[in-house]
Design brief:
Layout (H helix, E strand, L loop, with lengths): L1 H24 L6 H23 L5 H9 L5 H25 L2 H7 L12 H24 L9 H16 L9 H11 L7 H22 L25
Helix pairs in contact: 1-2, 1-4, 1-8, 2-7, 3-4, 3-9, 4-8, 6-7, 6-9
Length: 242
């Protein structure tokens, strides 16, 4: 069991590390489209690569959604969260080491910020709604056995990340992921409005997970009423009685 936890945690570590290193580094170009594609592509690739090992959460908010719907145990959720946050710190630390100081200061190591013309409360709502979309797609493509679409789950999830960042890249950074926000905040000491990228994603992810679970993954209750009476069909060659 411990070995299985280690293998799953290692898969989550690599996925989050790639997201932080590539996603954060992509911000040096100052282009929202490029950042959206970088984040979406790295998630699509990593979910496809490790989905069969750990489920490809690569996000504490996704793990929280699986936890509140009792699809993973509290112990496994804790293992995932430790792996995800540790990987985030490692990715940000390496990014800080390889990037020149001037570039680091220009992008704050990829730390998110709330756009000056919206409030932090509005930022929480934006992050919650975007994470709702993300976790809804995760449950529909990866958790729902009827959906497909496990073979294309990584692609669908990556596309969702891309469209979310395209919308919110200039508003909140479009994080949808506490680990992605935590790394530059800790390594670069950028904590302004820090709670936006924890409360929003965790709340939005939990709502999406619970709603999808209740609507589509819980057994459908049997209809209430008298049982239907099945009429016997006459045997082959036998005329029905009049």
């Amino acid at each position: 069991m411990a070995g299985d936890y280690f293998r799953r945690a290692a898969a989550e570590f690599v996925g989050v590390f790639a997201l932080v290193f590539v996603g954060g580094g992509s911000l040096i170009y100052g282009d929202v489209t490029g950042a959206a594609l970088a984040h979406g592509l790295v998630i699509a690739v990593m979910v496809s690569a490790v989905g069969h090992i750990s489920g490809g959460h690569i996000n504490p908010a996704v793990t929280f959604g699986f936890f509140v719907t009792r699809r993973i145990t509290v112990r496994l959720a804790a293992v995932y969260w430790v792996a995800q946050l540790t990987a985030a710190i490692a990715g940000a630390a390496l990014l800080a080491w390889v990037l020149p100081t001037q570039i680091q200061n220009g992008i704050n190591l990829g730390a998110p910020a709330v756009y000056t013309q919206i409030t932090s409360g509005q930022g929480v709502v934006i992050e919650a709604v975007l994470t709702f979309f993300l976790v809804w797609v995760v449950f529909a493509t990866a958790a729902d056995a009827r959906g497909a679409f496990k073979q294309i789950a990584g692609l669908a999830i990556g596309f969702t990340i891309t469209l979310d960042v395209l919308f919110a890249g200039k508003l909140t950074g479009g994080m949808m992921n506490p680990a992605r926000a935590f790394d530059p905040q800790l390594v670069g000491n950028h904590w302004t409005n820090w709670w936006v990228w924890y409360l929003g994603p965790l709340a939005g992810g939990a709502v999406a997970a619970v709603l999808y679970e209740l609507l589509y993954l819980r057994p459908t209750p049997a209809p209430v009423g008298p049982p239907e009476i099945e009429l016997e069909e006459p045997a082959p060659g036998e005329a029905a009685a009049e």
